[in-house]
Design a protein that fits this description.
The complex is a heterodimer of chains A (about 450) and B (about 150). Chain A has about 450 residues and is an alpha+beta fold. Chain A has 13 helices and ten strands. Classes of the chains: A alpha+beta (about 450), B mainly alpha (about 150). The structure holds protoporphyrin IX containing FE.
């Protein structure tokens, strides 16, 4: 709506007046019935604005952490998906290795907050739903454009939520590339959100002065005074829940989802993620923490990882080949580091192995600009990953051979895997076969 | 200025802002137009709006109306919200964890992790039952408290 829309029943004043008046007069069947059906006495600008304010404070976090995920993939190393995004991207920088929990927190927040906000989004949509069925749909060109932008806003958040939820539950039903869709969907949504907020912020601020949070019993819950946007029901029914009650209901829904989701990211609570695939340990042993991709799925065979396995290190025209016994004979370093998946779950474990910078030195590449790590895996999207210099030289950046005091299990990458502080899980390459240091 | 406002229906900055918003979307649409799956993306985008506005909302609103009709006048304290709240909780969980509950990702999960997918439908029913039971208990407690007074 424009900043000061005409009251609902006024004659349209915008040009071409005849068009808007004609539209208002031709009421399709059903709109009058729909108009009468909006009875909730708690709908109104205050409730809508409180829910709007919550989303205004939280959605930017979801957007920013989503964009950080793209940066964490390493667009400078041509590893972020989608790859070719034109001019529409946040400033890129080398993803840091400190704090080690950085990616665990950003991506955990992205997914958890995205889930927790579902009831807030649904509540907000409920609070404005009469506007969707309003007739005439517009009384001026300004309103028409604004309603079109609302289609992008509502479509955007529902699209992002639906694709995100399907992704973290392994259900790729949509049949398009998740990265491409979720990336461009994010920009459409963000542009529509900025527009919406810029137009509505003054209204939101005034409306927040409304009924307030004081406790009002249900029986004494009255509608807000009629508002220019027409959110307040013209024929309100009796209240069955106070405005505080509605907010508590939305908040309770958010808490319920939080309680059933945080177990994905908090080791002590893992099993509380009752309804998510990542709320699960494989077993109670030291290698029982979750696995995203098993050795069988990767098509890596016992012959490849057996005594015949060799790690090849290259830099320039120098090559060094090591078997696992030689690797275990090099200086070992132990670090407690999280492994944080792009799908939002994470876990902290104690890894032991050889520092990547020691391996680089072994082939005479003391301060490499990059390291290209190749897996034994032949087919997966992440059979190869490039680390930037900072990720190679961090004192806790390891080629891990052991975890929690035992050898890596096949599913966790035996004979050797990469683990680097704050590196997204997809780049912590398992079943490493070769590392090429460059520059 | 006043002339513009009358013709357009809002201030010029409003038009500028919306033009920016559509420019972003238009640019993206052009970029994606060449993708084989562009139509699917569009269908999912519009489908999400239709699914919410014309399916989800009407369904929960009609269920709530039926519930109000059935329980609205039942004695005090009203049992209405003691049904509504756990039902909404169960519905919310179903909506968010639907792919898992219906096992839509089971094939991919098995192929990726080698683990047998767990049946989540039973768990969802159990959590929903617990919500309903807690709400019923609370209602019973309120009834008793009222009788005692
Ligand atoms: C306000 C809505 C949202 C916005 C604006 C948004 C934005 C983004 C962006 C920009 C990315 C990076 C995409 C890329 O690397 O190509 C991303 C990644 C991701 N988002 Fe969202 N997102 C939203 C909601 C959600 C929700 C609700 C979930 C799930 C519950 C979710 C799950 C994910 C996942 C799993 C990724 C990582 C994908 C990967 O790197 O493999 N998103 N998001």
């Amino acid at each position: 709506m424009p900043a000061s829309p005409p009251p609902p029943d006024d004659a349209p004043s915008a040009a071409p007046a005849a068009l808007w008046r004609g539209l208002a007069r031709h009421r399709p069947p059903g709109v009058d019935a729909a108009d009468r059906a909006w009875r909730s006495p708690v709908r109104g600008p205050w409730l809508t604005s409180v829910l709007g304010a919550v989303l205004l404070a939280t959605l930017p976090l979801v957007i920013v952490t989503g964009l950080l995920d793209w940066i964490a993939y390493g667009p400078r190393l041509d590893q972020a998906f989608p790859r070719d995004v034109g001019w529409l991207h946040p400033p890129v920088f080398d993803w840091p290795t400190r704090p080690a929990w950085l990616f665990r927190v950003t991506q955990g927040l992205h997914v958890t907050l995205g889930i927790v906000l579902v009831p807030v989004v649904l509540g907000k949509l409920w609070s404005v739903v009469p506007k969707l069925f309003d007739w005439p749909p517009a009384r001026s060109a300004a309103q028409l454009l604004e309603r079109l932008s609302l289609l992008l806003l509502v479509g955007g958040i529902l699209f992002q939520t639906a694709t995100g939820l399907l992704n973290i539950q392994y259900a790729y039903l949509f049949g398009f590339d998740f990265y491409t869709a979720h990336w461009y969907g994010a920009w459409i949504f963000t542009a529509a959100l900025v527009t919406h907020v810029a137009v509505k912020l003054p209204r939101l601020v005034t409306a927040l002065r409304g009924p307030g949070f004081v406790r009002t019993p249900v029986e004494r819950t009255r509608p807000e005074p009629a508002d220019p946007d027409g959110l307040v029901a013209r024929r309100p029914g009796p209240a069955t829940m106070s405005r505080r009650g509605v907010l508590a209901l939305v908040g309770g829904g958010a808490l319920l989802l939080a309680a059933l989701t945080v177990g994905q990211s908090v080791d002590g609570l893992r099993r509380t993620a009752l309804l998510l695939p990542r709320g699960r340990r494989i077993d109670d042993g030291p290698t029982g923490f979750p696995v995203n991709r098993s050795v069988a799925a990767a098509g890596v065979t016992p012959e490849q990882t057996g005594p015949g396995w060799r790690l090849t290190l290259r830099a320039g025209n120098r090559t060094v080949t090591l078997d696992r016994a030689r690797l275990l004979g090099l200086a070992q370093h132990t670090a407690v580091l999280p492994i944080a998946c792009v799908e939002g779950w994470s876990t902290s474990q104690t890894w032991t192995g050889v520092r990547l910078r020691d391996l680089a030195a072994l082939v005479g590449a003391a301060g490499p600009a990059t390291a290209r790590v190749r897996s034994l895996e032949r087919a997966g999207l992440f059979r190869e990953a490039v680390l930037h210099g900072g990720q190679v030289t961090d004192p806790d950046a390891l080629l891990a051979l052991r975890v929690n005091g035992v050898d890596l299990s096949p599913d966790h990458g035996y004979p050797a895997r990469i683990i680097v502080p704050a590196l997204p899980g997809v780049h912590c390459t398992k079943w490493v076969a070769e590392i090429v240091f460059d520059g | 200025m006043a002339e513009f406002r009358r013709a357009y229906g809002a201030a010029p900055w409003h038009l500028l802002l919306l033009a920016g918003c559509f420019a972003v979307t238009g640019w993206i649409a052009l970029r994606l137009a060449g993708e084989a799956s562009a139509l699917r993306m569009l269908l999912w985008f519009l489908g999400a709006v239709i699914a919410h506005d014309l399916v989800l909302f009407p369904v929960y609103a009609s269920l709530d109306r039926a519930l109000r009709r059935a329980l609205g006048r039942a004695g005090a304290p009203s049992p209405l919200n003691h049904v509504r709240v756990p039902a909404l909780g169960a519905g919310l969980l179903f909506l968010v964890y639907l792919p898992g509950i219906l096992g839509l990702g089971d094939g991919t999960y098995l192929a990726a992790t080698g683990l047998a997918p767990r049946a989540l439908l039973g768990r969802w029913l159990a959590v929903s039952g617990a919500l309903l039971a807690a709400s019923a208990l609370l209602y019973a407690a309120r009834l008793l408290a009222r009788r005692a007074r």
